[in-house]
Amino acid sequence: MIKDSELILRPDGSIYHLHLLPGQVAETIITVGDPERVKAVSDRFDSIELRVEAREFVTHTGELNGKRLTVISTGIGTDNVDIVMNELDALFNIDLTTRVPKEELTQLNFVRLGTSGAFQADLPLGSFLLSEAALAMDGLLPFYLHSGEPDHAAITLQEHLEDAGVRLPVPPLIVRPELPSFLEQSDLPRGLTMTAAGFYAPQGRSLRLASGLSPALLTALRSWRHDDLRLTNIEMETSGIYGLATALGHRAASISTLLANRAEGTFHKEPARAVEALITKGLQLITEG
Ligand SMILES: O=P(O)(O)O[C@H]1O[C@H](CO)[C@@H](O)[C@H]1O
Ligand SMILES: O=c1cc[nH]c(=O)[nH]1
């Protein structure tokens, strides 16, 4: 039995941060960083059965083309992702009355629809990218006990960085999820996504404070290749979603629209339009894929 201090429920029985009850969440879950993007997604639904708001976690559940969907905002960063993934999983896979994990587990499909910065010069602003795997540069996943071998890509990245005489501030950890079946055959371009612990120095940005990610490290990261993959983009949630979804037995995908090009120093002139296009594409893939 999981203690009151570990699995925290509100007086109405809802889970602590998300304020959600079992049954209120669909098995296909769209995550977005920005709470305002939740409405932008659910505005496209045919019907909405639930709207709940708690801190940065806004949740809408409804139906589109006969498919029940939940869209939830994580807010920014993998610290929030830790809460969202654990609490959503608990709503399905822990009996909240007996406080015991269920014998029969429900596998969920997570699809993140997010914004991100392109890391390679040739990736156009406003283009979409499906993260095949994520490089965790944020620090959440080492707090979970891991089993299994490290992803082979992480070993080749480590060797590549050593050859260049540079190293990441955190040991390279690459997480590769099982994609939801409706995305396995999608025509989206694929890449490896870096998940950072912040927006400025952790992504190599220097305003008044200089980033510790050196030009030599950035060059080495840009030039690394693994099979036909390379580091394509950088954002702040995907490795947490991928790592925890995989550990909990769920499927996950992260689709980004590229708002910045960090190699070129450019930013999308109409970011809202880019996000609308991402929502259109994402919902099409989820309901028709
Ligand atoms: O647009 P969202 O989904 O919030 O994602 C990206 O945008 C935020 C930073 O501006 C971070 O959350 C990053 O991951
Ligand atoms: O450069 C970017 C753009 C969007 N989100 C990020 O985290 N980084």
Automatic annotation (TrEMBL):
Its EC number is 2.4.2.3. Residues 29-266 form the Nucleoside phosphorylase domain. InterPro entries: Nucleoside_phosphorylase_d, Nucleoside_phosphorylase_sf. GO terms for biological process: purine nucleoside catabolic process. CDD domains: UP_TbUP-like. It catalyses: uridine + phosphate = alpha-D-ribose 1-phosphate + uracil. This is Uridine phosphorylase.
